[in-house]
Amino acid sequence: MDYISTRGSAPALDFEGATLAGLASDGGLYVPSAWPRFSEDEIRSMRGLPYAKLAARVMQPFVGESLTPARLLELCEAAYGRFSHKAVTPLVQLDEQNWLMELFHGPTLAFKDVALQLLGLLFEEFLSRSDRNLTIVGATSGDTGSAAIDAVAGRAKVDVFMLHPKGRVSDVQRRQMTTVLAPNVHNLALEGVSFDECQAIVKRMFNDRAVTDRFAIGAVNSINWARLMAQVVYYFATALQLGAPDRVVAFSVPTGNFGDVFAGYVAQQMGLPIEKLIVATNVNDILHRALASGDYSQGTVTPTAAPSMDIQVSSNFERLLFDLGGREGSALAAQMAGFEASKAMQLTNAQREGAAKLFASCRADADEMAHSIRWAWENSGELIDPHTACALHGARTSGISPEVPVVTLATAHPAKFPEAVERATGQRPGLPSRVGDLFEREERCANVPGAYETVAEYVTAHAVPKG
C-alpha cells in the first residue's frame, strides 16, 4: 500500500513512512493510493471477533509489508489491553432507534485513546529499526493532547510537544496533559490564541526547513493517517453488532477536525453498509455550512461547553475534498491555497454532490446541547458529555427511517465536563477511580506567547535532533 499526498507533489510513501512523516512535504495529507474493499462474506466472517483481532483484520490492508499480520495483532492486543471495558467500544441502547457507541474507556477517557494507544506503539516499533529520533508536535482543543501524551510518555526516541490554547480546555483535559511529568513530555499553553491558530503553528513548523533540517517532525493529530486508520475499526465493530453487512447503519458524529467522521467514510469505502454519516457541529459550524450550502468560510471561534469542537478550520476535510474531486492533487492544492489566502472557498459541484450521497449535517446551539444531555438522562438514565450531546441532537432530528439504527459516537466521558452535565441534569458525574486523584497531582506546563517564532524557539531548544 502506497500513500499519496492530497496536494499531489510530495513523494509517495509506504505505511511506515507515512506514519512517521505525518504531514506531507507539500503541505497535503497522506491518503492510501486506493481504498481496499471487503466483500460481504469477508465482513460476515468478522462477526464475533475480539476487538484486537477485528482491528488487525480491518487495518492489515493499509499496513502492507510494514508489519506482519502477527506483529500487527500483537500491537493491537497491547494497545487495547489497557482499556477498562473488554469490548473496548461497547454499545448502549437509548431507545428503539438510537444507540451510543462508548469510546471513552481508554486511559484518558476520550475516543482519541482508541487510535493513539496504537499510534504510540507504532512509533516505537518503527523507530526501533533505526537511529532516528522523532519530535512530535501537536495541537489540541482538549482530548488529543492527553491521549497522545499518555501514549508516548517515557517511550524511547520520542519527544512530544503539545500546544493548547490557554484557558480554552476544561480543567480535567488540562490536568490530564500537565500532570504527566515524563521527561519527553512538553506541554505549552499558548496565550491569546484559538485552537485553529495552534494548529496553524504546527502546520507551519512541518514546512519550516530551519526546523525540519535538524529535527524529524512527526504528528499525532488526525493529520496522521495511522490515527484515522485505527478509528475505522470501531465503525466495523458497531455495525457488525447491529447486523452488518445484512443491515445498514447510520452514525452521528460530533466533529471539529473531521477526522472521526472521515474514518466512517473510509469504512463505507471499504464495503461497510452505512446509510448516512451525520456531521454534528456546535455553533462553530463551518462543516455544517460547507455540507449544507457549499460555503467553507472561516468565522470567529466561539468558546462553548464543547471545546473540542470549537474549530473553524477542519484539517481532515481536505481528504474528503480530494477524494470527491477525482483525486486531482494539483486542483486541490490550488483550492486549498485559495482558502488559506482568503479564509473562504466554495465547494465544487462534484464535491457537493459527492458529499450529499453519504453525509448529512446539523448544528447544535447551547440550548439544544443541554436539551440532549437532559433527554439522555431522563429517558435512558445515561449521562453524556456536551460533544456527544451535539451528535445525539443530530441523530434525533435526522429524519432517518425508523428501521435504520442510528449510532451516536460518545466521544468523551461525561466527567471530563462535569459543570455542563450538572447544569443540564442536576447530576455531577464523577471521575472513574483509575483517574480519581487527578486534581491532587503536580502540574508542569510552559506558558508561551502564541506566536510561531516563540513556539519554534521553545521546541528547538528542548527537542533531540533527528540523529
How does this structure look, described?
This is Threonine synthase. It is an enzyme of class 4 (lyase). It catalyses: O-phospho-L-homoserine + H2O = L-threonine + phosphate. The mean pLDDT is 95. The chain is α/β, with parallel strands linked by helices. The protein has a domain at 91-108 and 226-425: Rossmann fold (3-Layer(aba) Sandwich). It has 19 helices and 15 strands. The protein is globular, with a radius of gyration of 20 Å. Helices cover 42% and strands 15% of the residues. Helix 3 crosses helix 4, helix 5 (112-127) packs across helix 10 and helix 16 (366-380) crosses helix 18. A 6-stranded mixed beta sheet has the order 3-4-14-9-10-13, with helices on both faces. Strands 8-5-6-7-15 form a 5-stranded parallel beta sheet, with helices on both faces.
Essential attributes:
single chain; 467 residues; alpha/beta; Rossmann fold; six-stranded mixed β-sheet; five-stranded parallel β-sheet; 15 strands
Enter the CATH topology name of the domain at 91-108 and 226-425. Rossmann fold
Which of globular, elongated, flat, extended, rod-shaped describes the shape? globular
Mean pLDDT: 95
Low-pLDDT stretches are none
How would you write the strand order of the largest sheet?
3-4-14-9-10-13
Radius of gyration equals: 20 Å
Supply the number of helical segments.
19
Q: How much strand?
A: 15-25%
CATH structural architecture of the domain at 91-108 and 226-425? 3-Layer(aba) Sandwich
List how many beta strands DSSP finds. 15
- Structural category is alpha/beta
Top CATH class of the domain at 91-108 and 226-425: Alpha Beta
* Share of helical residues: 40-55%
Largest sheet: 6 strands, mixed
Roughly how many Å apart are the termini? 28 Å
